[in-house]
Amino acid sequence: MHVVVCVKQIPDPAEPGKLEGDLTLDRSGKLILDESDSYGVEMALQLVDKAGGGEVTLVSMAPNNENSGLRTALAMGAAKAILISDPLLSGAGALDTAKVLAAAIKSAEPDLVLTATESSDGYTGTVPEQIAALLGLPSITFAKEVHIDGQSVNVRRQTEDGYDEVTCSLPAVVSVTAGVVEPRYPSFKGIMAAKSKPVEEQTVVGLGLDPARVGVAGAGQEIVAVEDAPVREAGEIIVDDGEAFTNIVSFLDGLKLI
Amino acid sequence: MRFSWSQDQQAFSDAVRELLAKEGTPLVVRAAWDAPPGHLDRGVWDSLDAMGVLAVLVPEAAGGLGLDETFLVPILEEAGRVALPHPIVETAMVAAPLLGAGIGMIASDLGGPLVPCAADADRILLHQGDTLAVTDGDAVELTAATTVDGARRAATLSTPRHPEVLTDDPAVIALALDRGALGTAAMLVGLGQAMLDLTVDYVSQRQQFGVPIGSFQAVKHHLTNAALALEFARPAVARAAWSVAQSTPTRARDVSMAKAMASDAAELVGRQALQCHGAIGYTVEADLHLYLKRTWALARAWGDTAHHTDRVTHALEADLPSA
After folding, report:
1. What angle do CA A182, A186, A191 make, to 5 degrees?
2. How far apart are CA B71 and CA A94, in angstroms?
3. Rounded to whole angstroms, how far apart are CA atoms B19 and A88?
4. Residue A17: in which H helix or E strand, if any?
5. Residue B165: inside a domain, yes or no?
6. Which of B210, B316, B221, B223 has its CA nearest to residue B273?
7. What is the reported pLDDT for A17?
8. What was the ipTM of the complex prediction?
9. Where residue B199 sits, what CATH number does that domain have?
10. Chain A residues with CB-CB distance to B52 below 8 A
């Protein structure tokens, strides 16, 4: 069982984010493993354990050969990583990212590809499906449970009012929702072992991609302005005349929480 | 010469910090105040054990990581930062090098007659006359003690029945005592840092006369003095860790210097933190007291400042050329 997990290394969300001159996110500092990807890594490790053998390979795209986030996932138990780091990729959009990741995944020849539903810094939420389309693989989104059964994968897929059970053939691309498994803490032995695990460094040309079709050159989009998120508006104040609970009930009903 | 932790040491303490941020919350400390004897929750303890914290000083041949005190000290600083109620110094720093890996939770009277977590531990490491011994918890009678820090869960012990003697080598006993003082010094630096961070956060938010009270010079001076004391203590603790790891001839002096400076620094930070918090700092509802009371307790455990400054004085006098 060979599982590839796409992981993103992002600027620490605890630090105030900075923008570059071209309005892209400044990624020059230390990057950490996106927490939403730790669920995919944990699920992959559990699936390999259940299968009784195999390994987990990480695929990541990051500037400056940054691998500190990858080391965290390797310390959790992944066997190796492919890191695509290339100045050509500066300013890459979601589709460019998908093209690069898909090329790297193809070279790894996995049985299953796991991703998060979306990254914590970009939030486009489109890369997993684009990867699947580029590779010509079936795609299942919002997985809360994943089971491997021979040559097929069975997924409980989170929906607004419950879950769907979906089965498809392997290989497939499955995006995993956050919080569905408890990511393990890396052990000290894992941290030591991670230092000697192989990280294969790749470039755009090395993956056989056309530099004119990825990065800023091929993004097909431009960031023209960045604005602060609107300040949260004050809440509605209701004076309780004994019937205020009906307002609360209808508010919660509007959110489909009851 | 390099005066900072190595990448590995930093990676270990980062991993522990992340774990404790999730599992070592103030709620865990508060629960330790309230849980009956023998019922200390072991969730965070088991996670630290699984990570490998308790096996840092255990030789590789005995199933440990075979590392030294310079790896464990930054980890214990993290444990201090969350006022971890479990006996991590007694277990990871003092007992593990003597007893090996997989020893569970160990309490000890080496740090003083008030034994933390005595009723919760799997075994108790005892300083019996000129020996070190271990005993099961049920071979001694425990009397719960009322102390300033309820989360320490301290008890006094009766004379144990048939303890298993580990050693009567004075050098081994002296090393165990130095390790305990060193580990406690690291915890105190972490506690001091936690109280300073909490207070800087508080004075940045609390407003008076239309501005945050942290903008007043008197408040800044208090917290600057606290930060300075802590920054002077931290390298002394790191130096002591190195001296213990390398068994230098100055080991005892360096450990005592570290414990005295860390105790004084953490107590100073605590005083300034309480002052800057104002009345709310005195309430049980504010988290400050969890760290403050642990600081008071640990400053007096494993030898107080007077004891350790005496040791430093004697070590320095012994180095003077005779008249």
Report:
1. 165
2. 41
3. 37
4. none
5. no
6. B223
7. 80
8. 0.91
9. 1.20.140.10
10. 187-189
If you average pLDDT over every residue of chain B, what do you get?
A: 95
Please tell me the pTM assigned to this model: 0.89
Q: Give contacts of B 48-107 with A, CB under 8 A.
A: 50-53, 55-56, 65
Asked if B51 and A188 come within 8 Å (Cβ–Cβ), the reply is yes
Average pLDDT (B235-247) is 97
Cβ <8 Å between A185 and B8 = no
Over its C-alpha atoms, chain B yields an Rg (Å, rounded) of 20
Tokens read off for B256: 């005592």
Return d(Cα B110, Cα B120) in angstroms, integer: 17
pLDDT-derived band at B139, boundaries 50, 70, 90? confident
Share of chain B above pLDDT 70, in %: 99
Q: Are B269 and B196 in contact (CB under 8 A)?
A: yes
β-bridge partners, A82: A59, A200
Q: What would you measure as the largest C-alpha separation in chain A, in angstroms?
A: 70
Q: For chain A, which domains are there?
A: 2-230 (3.40.50.620)
CA B300 to chain centre: 11
Which chain A residues touch B56 with a CB distance below 8 Å? 188
Domain with B300, as residue range(s), is 171-319
Which among B101, B48, B98, B97 is positioned nearest to B76, based on CA atoms? B48
Q: Maximum distance among all alpha carbons in chain B?
A: 67
Domain contains B247: yes
Q: How confident is the model at residue B1 (pLDDT cuts 50, 70, 90)?
A: low
Interface probe for B, chosen from A35, A182, A188 (most Cβ of B below 10 Å), is A188
Q: Taking CB atoms and an 8 Å cutoff, what residues of chain B touch A188?
A: 12, 15, 51-53, 55-56, 65
CB pair distance less than 8 Å for B12 and A188:
yes
| Chain A residue whose CA is closest to B71 | A188
The answer to whether the Cβ–Cβ distance between A187 and B51 falls below 8 Å is: yes
Structural domain includes residue B245: yes
Chain center to CA of B304: 13
Number of A to B CB contacts under 8 A, please give it. 29
H-state helical runs in chain B: 7-23, 26-34, 43-51, 69-81, 88, 96-99, 170-205, 217-246, 251-277, 288-300, 305-319
Determine whether the interchain pair B15/A188 forms a contact, defined as Cβ–Cβ distance below 8 Å: yes
Q: Hey, are the CB atoms on B15 and A186 less than 8 Å from each other?
A: yes
Number of domains in chain B: 1
**Closest CA of chain A from B15, distance in Å:** 7
d(CA B20, CA B85): 12
Of B99, B85, B113, B94, the closest CA to residue B29 belongs to: B85
Assess if residue B22 is contained within a domain: no
Whole-Å CA distances, B145 to B25, B29, B134, B157, B290: 25, 18, 21, 10, 18
Q: Shortest CB distance from B11 goes to which of A185, A189, A191?
A: A191
Contacts of A122 (CB under 8 A, 6+ apart): A8, A94
